[in-house]
Amino acid sequence: MEPLKLAVFDAEDLAVVSAHLQDAVIRVGDIAFLPAAHRFALVLRRFDWEASGKQPRRRLAGLHFEGVQAVRTRGIDRARPDDVLNLLAVTFEPGDPPAGRIRLVFAGGACLQLEVDWLEASLKDLGPVWAAKRRPIHDLESA
138 lies in a domain? Predict the structure, then answer.
């Protein structure tokens, strides 16, 4: 399987990226806001949904957003860099076009909200691939 490399310029693009990132795990210490560059970046270990039917696996990937003016968090303690977050979805809420809010929603109620001047992001696999212990399971009955 070729490494994934996706660009985001609208909400539909972001929905595709969100699907690829469902169940990604992220160390709190691998999250960075670079205010001078108006960039928000993170390194994650995404579940490789494209490898369905094969041995479950994860891939190291990088995700960054441009035009970021502010970042808000809920349920994330930056003083605990080894804590692990399980990503459920990435969404976009339009504001005064082309600005808006990007939300990264995690299991357990944690959330990151990015205030952006426009929607622009990039997701890229960084190389390493390894066997996952198991395929993520979602309890749809309690959702």
Answer: no
44 closest CA partner among 66, 34, 59: 59
| Sign for the pseudo-dihedral over CA of 119, 12, 129, 49 | positive
Please name the amino acid found at residue 133: K
| Number of Cβ within a 10 Å radius of residue 40 | 24
Q: How many domains are contained in the chain?
A: 1
In a domain, 141, yes or no: no
Question: What residues make up the domain containing 36?
Answer: 5-127
Alpha-carbon gap, residue 57 to 135, rounded angstroms: 8
Encode pLDDT of 73-111 as tens digits: 999 999 999 999 999 999 999 999 999 999 999 999 999
For residue 87, tell me if it sits in a domain.
yes
Residues 110-133 have pLDDT tens digits of 999 999 999 999 999 998 786 777
Give me 103's structure tokens: 């939300």
Provide the CB-side half-sphere exposure for 100 (13 A, CA). 16
> Given this model, what pLDDT does residue 143 score?
47
pTM score, whole prediction: 0.89
| Distance between CA atoms of residues 134 and 137, nearest Å | 9
